[in-house]
Design a protein that fits this description.
- The complex is a heterodimer of chains A (245) and B (306).
- Chain A is built from eleven helices and no strands.
- The longest helix of chain A has 39 residues.
- The model of chain A has no long low-confidence stretch (mean pLDDT 88).
- Chain A has one domain.
- Chain A is 80% helix and 0% strand.
- Chain B is of the alpha/beta class.
- Chain B has a six-stranded mixed β-sheet with strand order 6-7-8-3-9-10, with helices on both faces.
- In chain B, α9 runs antiparallel to α10.
- The two termini of chain B are 32 Å apart.
- The chains are: A mainly alpha (245), B alpha/beta (306).
- The interface between A and B is medium-sized, with 25 and 33 residues.
């Protein structure tokens, strides 16, 4: 597999993506809401204003950090659906597949184009999130809560794995859909399991500590591997040309 | 340049292409005629290594279609103009071509030169910075042709390149194909425009799942020569028509004062028919052997298979 070929495809998709205001807004909006909205909740409903108890604050900050995993699972579906179903809608797959590229180069290119903007948007959002939370909680806690191992594992391990899962799901969904919105809606079904983990952590059934995050990462990795085989089987040129279109 | 032997493609129980065999020479414009669903696009897709063959052999230059190692080499030396142009509407004309140039591993210099060359040749240079989605249908088709040529392929596959184009745009595309022929490129043209095929193809194959016939336009028309005789009379009456009908079991058409008769053997049948007409009191003004058109050949072939 030649990474250079995959990158040519990714660069083309990223260029198209930059010109699609709807997708661009969606990808920017989610991290922006999480990165500014959640620290505001901490600020206005936190111990300083007689809301959340000081002892609950670290748990809540960890739980809020989990939103970046939900985002990582959700955001790539917008781009991947557009990138894959978009080719189908514009009927541009046939000339593209007639070029000297392999199926895996094409799949990798599409995956990079969906993965990169989502992760970059989330990382920027996470930086703002950590900065604002440190600003609002430093005096109360007496130390800077972020960065910490939990956030490190979330951003460097769990979120990228969740984003990969999202891309793979989108590839599989795109093979059965001819409409970008339908693909995005179906792709959105990936979020509820992650939201469920967040809710369970909020009600205190599990703690989102480093150990549990490693377990979550291991489960996502396993699903990633399974979906990788399904998506590569789905993403074969004959399958794409005769069944996708 | 292209060798196909006994090529078959089945989609589950449906046979799309059955045992086709043909050879296309380098620099030849080969037309593939056939009704919708005849297997033309499937054949092109097999030859472009887009879908696998079920059985049979096909080679392009020295490379074997269906061999994984050769597939990339084949795709590198061919260009494809699919029936749907499939452009990236949000990218500019230039960006569309530049993207494909990169995929075909053209150097930056050759990409720039070829983009300028083909866009100027097709009258699109002024539109190079315009989004492809805003172009007219004819311009999009021209852009799709430029895209297929960006890496200067030896073999060009064109699937219905003039379908849905206005006469002027169709003519531009046809003239361009003839220009490409002068550059010794091999062109495989799928079409159901018989006039187009007759004008630009060196040889034509008629396909309806199976390859029904193959030859130059003249050879194909030759295959029907003498089958119809047109006799212009001063006046046609029932006695003349029944006298002719007694002689032949073939079809006899009456149009104004003309009799158009399907004949088996012109040397034997025509004198007998003329004698019968004269005996029935007919005054013959003109006897013509109708020269068949490619449409006649096509319709006859396609009807026969029904």
């Amino acid at each position: 597999m030649r990474i250079s070929k995959a990158w040519i495809i990714a660069a083309k998709d990223l260029r198209i993506f930059r010109r699609n205001k709807t997708v661009l807004r969606l990808v920017i909006l989610f991290p922006l809401i999480v990165s500014i909205g959640l620290p505001m909740v901490i600020h206005f409903a936190g111990p300083n204003h007689g809301g959340i108890a000081l002892s609950r604050l670290p748990t809540l900050l960890n739980a809020f950090s989990f939103f970046f995993i939900i985002g990582a699972a959700y955001l790539p579906t917008f781009i991947a659906s557009y990138s894959l179903v978009g080719e189908k809608v514009e009927k541009s797959l046939e000339p593209l597949l007639a070029t000297p590229i392999t199926d895996s180069e094409l799949l990798l290119g599409k995956s990079i184009a969906s993965f990169l903007p989502s992760i970059v948007a989330l990382y920027i959002g996470a930086a703002i999130f950590m900065l604002l939370n440190d600003l609002f909680t430093h005096q109360t806690l007496g130390y800077y809560y972020f960065p910490n191992w939990t956030m490190g594992i979330i951003l460097l391990l769990v979120a990228p794995l969740a984003a990969i899962l999202s891309v793979e799901m989108s590839v599989i969904i795109s093979s059965r859909t001819t409409d970008v919105r339908a693909a995005q809606l179906l792709g959105g079904l990936i979020a509820p399991p992650f939201v469920a983990i967040y809710v369970v952590s909020e009600i205190g059934s599990i703690t989102l500590n480093t150990n549990n995050l490693f377990i979550i990462a291991a489960v996502i990795l396993l699903v990633d591997v399974i979906l990788f085989f399904i998506s590569t089987k789905t993403f074969q040129r004959e399958e794409i040309l005769t069944k996708w279109t | 340049m292209i060798d196909v032997e006994n090529l078959t493609k089945k989609f589950n129980e449906v046979t799309a292409v059955e045992g086709i065999t043909f050879h296309i020479n380098e620099g030849e414009v080969f037309g593939f005629l056939g009704p919708n669903g005849a297997g033309k696009t499937t054949t092109v897709r097999m030859l472009c290594c887009l879908i696998s063959k079920t059985t049979g052999e096909a080679r392009i230059a020295d490379y074997e279609v269906g061999n994984t190692a050769d597939s990339l080499k084949i795709r590198k030396m061919i260009g494809l103009v699919p029936d749907n142009v499939g452009l990236y509407n949000q990218l500019s004309v230039y960006e569309n071509l530049d993207f494909y140039g990169k995929l075909y591993e053209c150097t930056e210099k050759s990409r720039k030169e070829n983009i300028e060359h083909f866009l100027k040749m097709l009258g699109l240079w002024e539109k190079k910075d315009v989004a492809a989605g805003t172009l007219s249908k004819g311009m999009k088709q021209k852009l799709a042709i430029a895209r297929a040529l960006i890496h200067e392929p030896k073999v060009l596959f064109m699937d219905e390149p003039t379908a849905n184009l206005d006469p002027e745009a169709s003519k531009t595309v046809r003239d361009f194909i003839l220009d490409l022929k002068k550059e010794n490129r091999t062109i495989f043209l799928n079409t159901h425009n018989l006039d187009e095929a007759q004008r630009i193809c060196d040889r034509i194959g008629i396909l309806k799942t199976r390859l029904l016939t193959i030859g130059t336009p003249e050879q194909l028309k030759e295959s029907l020569r003498g089958v119809r005789t047109e006799i212009q009379l001063a006046q046609v009456n029932d006695a003349i028509v029944s006298a002719v009908k007694k002689l032949t079991s073939h079809k006899v058409e009456v149009s104004d004062n003309k009799l158009i008769i399907d004949v088996g053997n012109t040397d034997e049948d025509n004198p007998a028919i003329i004698e019968a007409i004269v005996s029935a009191g007919g005054r013959i003004q003109l006897v013509t052997e109708l020269s068949p058109t490619l449409e006649d050949v096509y319709l006859k072939m396609v009807k026969e298979i029904k």
